[in-house]
Design goal:
Layout lengths: L1 H7 L6 H23 L1 H8 L17 H67 L3 H6 L2 H43 L1 H7 L2 H39 L1 H6 L3 H53 L7 H43 L19 E9 L8 E9 L3 E6 L5 H7 L8 E6 L2 E2 L5 H6 L1 E4 L10 H6 L6 H10 L3 H5 L18 H15 L3 E5 L7 H15 L3 E5 L11 E6 L2 E6 L1 H5 L5 H10 L1
Parallel strand pairs: 3-8, 3-9, 6-7, 7-8
Antiparallel strand pairs: 1-2, 1-4, 4-5, 9-10
Length: 604
Amino acid sequence: MKNYFRLLSYAKPLGGFIVPFVITSILASLFGVLNFTLLMPLLDVLFDKIAFEAVAKPDSIFDLKNQFNYYFGLFLTQYGKFGALQFVCGVIAVSVLLANIFKYVSIRLLEKFKSNMVSNLRQAVFDNSINLHLGFFSNERKGNLISRIVTDVQEVENSIANTFSAATKEVFLFIFYIASLFYISWNLTFFALLVIPVSGIFISTLVKRMRRDAGEGQQRLSNLITLMDEAFGGMRVVKGFVAEKFISEKFRTENQGYRNAIFGLAARREMSSPFSEIMGVFVVIGILLYGGSLIFDGKSELTASEFISYIVIFSQVMRPAKDISNAFSSAQRGLASGERILELIDNQPLIKDKSNAIPIKDFGHSIEAHNVGFSYEGDVEVLKNINFTLQKGKTIALVGSSGGGKSTIADLIPRFYDPTGGQITIDGVDMKDVSQHSLRKLMGIVTQEAVLFNDTIFNNIAFGENVSLEEVVAAAKIANAHDFIMQQSSDYQTVIGDRGTKLSGGQRQRLSIARAILQNPPILILDEATSALDTESEKLVQEALTNLMKNRTTLVIAHRLSTIQSADQILVIHQGQIIERGTHDELLKIEDGFYKKLSSMQTL
């Protein structure tokens, strides 16, 4: 129940919803039950069984029973039985009208409540997700995240919010019906309520099984979304390796698992409705037999009209009882989804700003790594005893074999991760004491894979900045991108497709460089930005990078050594350690040096 109420709390502001919803639900229930209690005088009038004693007009308008009796007697006296019948029918019509007006208002309030809850919940999940540390996204499957934000939140709307409606509106209706039954005959009502413990035990057993099926179903759905995302995103590989059948079989396995889980959930959920209905019919039969025997033996004070009204009202009691039962059964799928959502909301980023984090506005003189060590969540150390100083306006290049730790060093500079040993400082201040936002605003990052969005070229370069077309064009020209942009169908307003698939690799990379140029950061991190390009594209991109690096402090990860020969210092990284450092010429003079071997292999 804790998770249930926590999910409901996202429908803020709750105060402005609960009070009017409860009031309208109570009034809708009250007038709804009143319609059936009016059957007794209606039947008495129709079958000429009126036993009425005139009453004085009550002082309070809220004394509904005596108010009704007063006007009923007035109409009966002045207009006869047909007048009394007209009065009763008129009261029923007004009661039905008011019941449905209040019912409609309560439904509108409920829909607003649901939309607020779903919107706020989805926003909270997304906001918390994008603020998590980078390592979280390395371990988590993207399809699973999308499933939680989309399908799980939707399931909460369909199940939890509807349960809340049943737990309020239907409960009020149920209470009013029971109160009416006790008013008519308390001994028959006690007899009828004997069925409730039996139904409760049966439904609670179903609920436990349904929670398990619901959890498995949502996990299977996450797996399906992940598989589709990977298959459609890697369709070139799927086609190239003729792996359609393999992917199809993986999808079939997950799809069948999802089908079985959902079928099991539905089978148990739908069992509660016929069970409640069967029990209700059996109780009605029992009441007919028991109540009839009392009337036949003269042991009951109930009139025929009261007994018939009792049966009619009791038949209506089963509807809210069944709705409440079904709602709580259906809620199990929503609670399973809610647990997955709250798990994501409760996931805290490993990289956090301190309460007194320092905002930095500019870069003064240097970034320094002091005896830095790093390991991923308790694994073997990736970096050991890393020391270097990146002076303002200088370029340091990182080279070495794959898996040596170059990219990890680059990820530590903008605090995508924190060192597990040693420290990194910027202008003498430990980066852990600096706010992440201000630190990253000083940095521009260009990676090996150009990350672009299914949007216009203009929006990809501007990327949320409030800039003019002239500024975007200027950045594109520096990045050697303007010419190919002007050749597109709508130049800067051309939509480039999912992840920029309508462009070549070199064109995508130049757009990402233009984006970095527009940000005008004093510090650059270039992670093998040309390694995946052909010779012609590499030349254009390298020129763009050279323009970008002018008068900036740069950390470069290089695969092709020809691109970093002019670096002020080259660090050779091997197995997480710096084994050589110096300029290009100095490193080539080291006999049997690692850098010299790399250079020889690339020359060959």
